[in-house]
């Protein structure tokens, strides 16, 4: 993950570190290389541009160039701005964005996304993580009545994860399944109910209407969009389309394990304004991590 970007940035930084004094031109030359490295990592152009502008403005300040270790200071600025790019502007930008379960139980986590993005797998991974790491009583329900065997797939994953799934009632439609899941979760004192909604091949109106209908009957505490990191800027565009239609609270970025470039991870927050809350790192149900911008920045610059 981020291998090429990391190598290229470190080359630039080694050169900066190796020099005693730095002038404005040195900073601008270095930033030109950083910009190319970001674009080659498939970072969205406006995000790369904004990043370079912010770093340059801070780095050519007198207190940096006149300091004893100007190279070190520039690297520190890159690190800070990378965290902002990954995590946003607020003071806690470096920390993982929390999952909001702070509502009267059951807290509903609605999972949305395109077909094949890893939505069903991520639903089971998050349920397992909440159960094992946060001691939550979790339950899952599949509202995917389009894809044959989608409901059975979630039931199988539930067995593997040790998390209950709502029994399947053939022919029942998504909104009714959501209502039944809520009733059942209340009766069983479930803390978190995860709703795995139907995927589609493309963002379309019918999909959005269904998302809205499900959201209106289940008042989710979290609406998490699952997108595939390997699709790069397409993942960011999908997130943008969903953001315009449903009140997303965060993103789950899957297949980070196979993503050598990292463009989706790097541009998601800046383009969509939505935090990446989880990163999928493999096919197994334990292969999921909270997304810590500061740790990701360390990995890139490490
Ligand atoms: P859905 O159609 O969005 O529900 O997608 P699925 O959950 O069925 O996942 C599609 C495929 O992607 C399955 O083979 C999963 O095992 C795989 N997958 C999901 N998440 C990840 C991930 O983070 N890394 C890897 N390598 N594979 C994943």
From TrEMBL:
<feature type="binding site">
    <location>
        <begin position="254"/>
        <end position="257"/>
    </location>
    <ligand>
        <name>GTP</name>
    </ligand>
</feature>
<comment type="function">
    <text>Involved in targeting and insertion of nascent membrane proteins into the cytoplasmic membrane. Binds to the hydrophobic signal sequence of the ribosome-nascent chain (RNC) as it emerges from the ribosomes. The SRP-RNC complex is then targeted to the cytoplasmic membrane where it interacts with the SRP receptor FtsY. Interaction with FtsY leads to the transfer of the RNC complex to the Sec translocase for insertion into the membrane, the hydrolysis of GTP by both Ffh and FtsY, and the dissociation of the SRP-FtsY complex into the individual components.</text>
</comment>
<dbReference type="GO" id="GO:0005886">
    <property type="term" value="C:plasma membrane"/>
</dbReference>
<dbReference type="GO" id="GO:0006614">
    <property type="term" value="P:SRP-dependent cotranslational protein targeting to membrane"/>
</dbReference>
<comment type="similarity">
    <text>Belongs to the GTP-binding SRP family. SRP54 subfamily.</text>
</comment>
<keyword id="KW-0342">GTP-binding</keyword>
<keyword id="KW-0378">Hydrolase</keyword>
<dbReference type="GO" id="GO:0005525">
    <property type="term" value="F:GTP binding"/>
</dbReference>
<keyword id="KW-0694">RNA-binding</keyword>
<feature type="domain" description="SRP54-type proteins GTP-binding">
    <location>
        <begin position="275"/>
        <end position="288"/>
    </location>
</feature>
<keyword id="KW-0547">Nucleotide-binding</keyword>
<keyword id="KW-0733">Signal recognition particle</keyword>
<keyword id="KW-0687">Ribonucleoprotein</keyword>
<comment type="subunit">
    <text>Part of the signal recognition particle protein translocation system, which is composed of SRP and FtsY. SRP is a ribonucleoprotein composed of Ffh and a 4.5S RNA molecule.</text>
</comment>
<feature type="binding site">
    <location>
        <begin position="196"/>
        <end position="200"/>
    </location>
    <ligand>
        <name>GTP</name>
    </ligand>
</feature>
<feature type="binding site">
    <location>
        <begin position="113"/>
        <end position="120"/>
    </location>
    <ligand>
        <name>GTP</name>
    </ligand>
</feature>
<keyword id="KW-0963">Cytoplasm</keyword>
<dbReference type="GO" id="GO:0003924">
    <property type="term" value="F:GTPase activity"/>
</dbReference>
<protein>
    <recommendedName>
        <fullName>Signal recognition particle protein</fullName>
        <ecNumber>3.6.5.4</ecNumber>
    </recommendedName>
</protein>
<dbReference type="GO" id="GO:0048500">
    <property type="term" value="C:signal recognition particle"/>
</dbReference>
<dbReference type="GO" id="GO:0008312">
    <property type="term" value="F:7S RNA binding"/>
</dbReference>
């Amino acid at each position: 993950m981020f291998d090429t970007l990391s190598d290229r940035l470190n080359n630039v930084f080694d050169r900066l570190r190796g020099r005693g004094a730095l002038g404005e031109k040195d900073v601008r030359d270095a930033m030109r290389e950083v910009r190319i490295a970001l674009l080659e990592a498939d970072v969205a152009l406006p995000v790369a541009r904004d990043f370079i502008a912010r770093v340059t403005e801070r780095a050519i300040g007198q207190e940096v160039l006149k300091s004893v270790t100007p190279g070190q200071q520039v690297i520190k600025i890159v690190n800070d701005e990378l965290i902002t790019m990954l995590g946003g502007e607020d003071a806690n930008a470096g920390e993982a964005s929390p999952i909001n379960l702070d509502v009267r139980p059951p807290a509903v986590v609605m999972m949305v996304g395109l077909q094949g993005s890893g939505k069903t797998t991520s639903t089971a991974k998050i349920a397992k993580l909440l159960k094992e790491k946060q001691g939550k009583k979790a339950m899952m329900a599949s509202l995917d009545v389009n894809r044959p065997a989608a409901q059975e797939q979630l039931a199988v994953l539930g067995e593997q994860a040790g998390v209950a799934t709502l029994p399947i009632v053939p022919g029942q439609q998504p909104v009714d399944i959501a209502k039944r899941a809520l009733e059942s979760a209340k009766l069983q004192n479930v803390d978190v109910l995860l709703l795995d909604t139907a995927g589609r091949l493309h963002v379309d109106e019918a999909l959005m209407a269904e998302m809205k209908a499900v959201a209106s009957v289940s008042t989710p505490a979290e609406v998490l969009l699952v997108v595939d990191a390997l699709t790069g800027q397409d993942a960011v565009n999908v997130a943008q389309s969903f953001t315009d239609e449903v009140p997303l609270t965060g993103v789950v970025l899957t297949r980070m394990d196979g993503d050598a470039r990292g463009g989706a991870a790097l541009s998601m927050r800046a383009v969509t304004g939505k935090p990446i809350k989880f990163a999928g790192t493999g096919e197994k149900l334990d292969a999921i991590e909270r997304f810590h911008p500061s740790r990701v920045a360390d990995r890139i610059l490490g």
